[in-house]
Design brief:
Blueprint: H1 7-10, H2 26-38, E1 42-45, H3 52-63, E2 65-71, E3 83-85, H4 87-97, E4 110-112, H5 114-119, H6 121-125, H7 145-148, E5 152-161, H8 169-173, H9 175-180, E6 182-185, E7 190-193, E8 208-214, H10 222-226, E9 229-232, H11 238-253, H12 258-280, H13 288-301, H14 308-318, E10 323-324, E11 327-328
Parallel strand pairs: 1-8, 1-9, 2-5, 5-8
Antiparallel strand pairs: 3-4, 6-7, 10-11
Length: 329
Amino acid sequence: MTEHRSPEESFLSPDRGDGEIYVMSPRIDEAVMVALATGRPLLLRGRPGSGKSSLAPFIARQRGWRYYDHVITYATRSTELLWRYDSVRRLADAQAHRQGAVGLDDASYVEPGVLWWALAPQSAARRGRSAGEGAPGSECLDPSAEVNAGRSPDHAVVLIDEIDKADPDVPNSLLVPLGSHRFTVMETGTEVRLERPTGEVDPRFSRHLVVITTNDERELPQAFLRRCVVETLPDHDVPSLVRIAEEHMKTWHGSAGDGELRLAEALAVELGKVREQAMTIGLREPSTAEFLDALRACLTLGITLGSERWEWLKNCVLIKRQQIAGDEW
């Protein structure tokens, strides 16, 4: 039976992060199991658009585990994945306090990060306070409450996206928290540690999976690499691209008929040619996500391969030239 979707669901992009669609190879599945068996983070390498960021929400949805994510930027600080402290607001309130305001509660200025929520959700909700402490309404809300509704309170998947954008002190600062499952909030002295499970769990496997992605823009510290399970997502061949396209076409149109599958296969073959062309002229090769963009445009707009419209679409979606100092190349 065809699943009915809302217009908003129908127009989700190929870069969707809801975890509903992912074609996982046996090798990637094995890497996930190794990470869970060893309790190590899973570091994923691969070309941009190859599906690195989509794996974590898929696993969380598949297993019914809570899900959190954090996208690293060049400005990310080393403690941000654990907690943030609003020192500016704290200073303003301290000045008001000297003018007669009520006493300050340092925990009120703490915002738990994704790793805190994953390891100790009850502590994160209380901002590190002991049970029963804090004024009513001072609790912190789960940043992924809607996604996590009904999911296991004892298990979580965390995505740390594009770790290579950070300074080396960011991955290095994660070594102890990821290894010991505990850390201390410096501003309040609160020790955060892995909370006891509320139900039965399998002691052979970790209750938490941390998936870290890298585009290899910057070399990662060796100490960090030693503590990770490392896997590289391979380039998708034609059969793999067709399988991925089939799953996405089911969400776009409710089905994937023979005609659509033949188009997906032809477009996958064409993608290989475009990638060779991009390499020849020194451009970035198109990704799987861009392949899906081109396929959806062809299906929706009736564009056929080899037509004049296809040549336009190819340059619009697959081959994206840079333009520097007025010169396109």
